[in-house]
Write a structure and sequence with these properties.
seven-stranded mixed beta sheet, Formiminotransferase-cyclodeaminase, Chain B, domain 1, about 35% helix, Alpha-Beta Plaits, single chain, 11 strands
């Protein structure tokens, strides 16, 4: 049976009790494995990583909305990360035996049922989008929840499913199909937000930077740091090592050190393997040289 990954993001990263209760509901859906959850208080966001076939994953997304309706209220939520809803984005990603067409079918079927059951406006994005101007997630999110009511009145932003008014607690949701994405953040040892913002502008593709990189600069006031927060949408074109090098080089121009980096959620082994072989200078080293690869049946 084709295997899909689903990586829903919710607009809650501070009430860890609520996040845990939602995660528990997801873990009890038959046929679905909850592989990971990650919460961030500054972004005010949590990310769940689920795998399964299309039908069980659709059931899990419905359980997620049930939990969000009971636990969350996007109208009262403020965080560093852009959002349009309590359940903000639900991407489906093809894994073993699955195609992008399978992911698109799952996204559209899930979006239709979410709208019917919860009265939430649903936008289809990336490979599932119904118009070119709705493919990019940043365009769907532009204006955020606060601008959503006005946006939904524009003909080009009528939802694909559901009413053209925001749900009072859940807002709206973007549901789509995409390839593997790596959420990767680099923390800088400074409080100067302008440094992170400048570096984000240099490295992101939309400003003429690295291909397949989305980036923004954020302050981490509780830690006295700033962050370059990034999504890498194609690590075969721009690797984690490429991004780390570029951010480190730009930070050095401002006399700032890279303190650490982090991955949000999960990533494929080849992402770290590529970085390791580059920094350790191991030309020709590949996954076939790993003990675990040789031991696999």
């Amino acid at each position: 049976m084709p295997l899909l990954e689903c990586v829903p993001n919710i607009s809650e990263g501070r009430d860890l009790g609520a996040v845990a209760r939602i995660a528990d509901a997801l873990s009890r859906v038959p046929g679905v494995r909850l592989l990971d959850r990650h919460s961030d208080a500054v972004h005010h966001r949590s990310v769940f990583t689920l795998v399964g076939a299309a039908d069980p994953l659709r059931a899990a997304v419905l359980a997620l909305f049930e939990g969000a309706l009971a636990e969350l209220d996007v109208s009262a939520q403020r965080g560093a990360h852009p959002r349009i809803g309590a359940v903000d984005v639900v991407p489906f990603v093809p894994l073993s035996g699955a195609t992008m067409a399978d992911a698109v079918t799952a996204a559209r079927a899930t979006g239709e049922e979410v709208a019917a059951r919860f009265g939430v406006p649903v936008f289809l994005y990336e490979a599932a989008a119904t118009a070119t101007w709705r493919r990019a997630l940043q365009d769907v999110r532009r204006g955020q929840f606060e601008g959503l009511a006005a946006k939904l009145q524009r003909p080009e932003w009528q939802p694909d499913f559901g009413p053209a008014v925001p749900h009072p607690r859940l807002g709206a949701v973007a549901i789509g199909a995409r390839g593997i994405l790596v959420a990767y953040n680099i923390n800088l040892a400074t409080t100067r937000l302008e440094v992170a913002a400048r570096i984000a502008a240099v490295v992101r593709e939309s400003s003429g930077g690295l291909p397949c990189v989305k980036a923004m600069g954020l302050a981490l006031p509780g830690r006295g740091l700033v962050q370059v927060s990034m999504n890498l949408t194609d690590i075969d074109r721009t690797s984690i090592a490429d991004v780390f090098d570029a951010v480190s080089r730009e930070a050095a121009r401002d006399g700032v050190e890279v303190l650490e980096s982090e991955v949000v959620g999960l990533l494929p082994a080849r992402a770290l393997l590529g970085a390791a072989t580059r920094f350790l200078r191991l030309p020709g080293f590949d996954a076939d040289r790993l003990l675990e690869t040789r031991l696999a049946p």
